[in-house]
Design brief:
Blueprint (H helix, E strand, L loop, with lengths): L6 H16 L4 H21 L3 H19 L17 H5 L32 H6 L14
Helix pairs in contact: 1-2, 2-3
């Protein structure tokens, strides 16, 4: 518990408490450390209201709410979920890995692609050259 009243030292303590919460061993410890960081950031805001402190306070409050709901475990620096994407993956909007529709980026192996027809819409000037295209003929009634 911090008993200091100097805003700069309080801010330093709040930042340290937040960083310590990122390396906590379990969820309960993470929540306790985030609670202390929120309280300390609040104390700093009462004495010295700056945009940086306000941003940090709001960020830690939202992070604490998310952690309390249990949506996602806090990430650790060695966690495999933090693996960096390659430049091609970052530039692409395709998902990585297999999906419901197969592997992204191409047709499934063994699929005959000649059975599929690719329809490309006409440009405006092409539609003006052939105004009857796409209108279809008269319906023929049967019976």
């Amino acid at each position: 518990m911090i008993t200091e009243t100097d805003p700069e030292l309080l801010l330093l303590g709040a930042n340290a408490e937040f960083r310590a919460s990122q390396h906590a061993s379990d969820r309960g410890e993470t929540l306790r450390r985030l609670d202390r960081a929120v309280k300390t950031y609040g104390d700093v805001l009462r004495t010295q209201s700056t945009p940086d402190v306000a941003y940090n306070y709001e960020y830690v409050v939202r992070l604490r709410e998310t952690a309390a709901r249990g949506r996602q475990a806090p990430l650790r620096s060695g966690d495999t979920r933090m693996a960096q994407k390659t430049a091609a993956e970052a530039a692409s909007d395709l998902p990585t890995g297999p999906t419901l529709h197969g592997y992204p980026g191409g047709p499934p192996k063994g699929t005959d692609m000649s059975q599929f027809k690719i329809v490309i819409p006409k440009r405006g000037e092409e539609r003006k050259d052939n105004p009857e295209a796409g209108k279809g003929g008269a319906k023929v009634r049967k019976g």
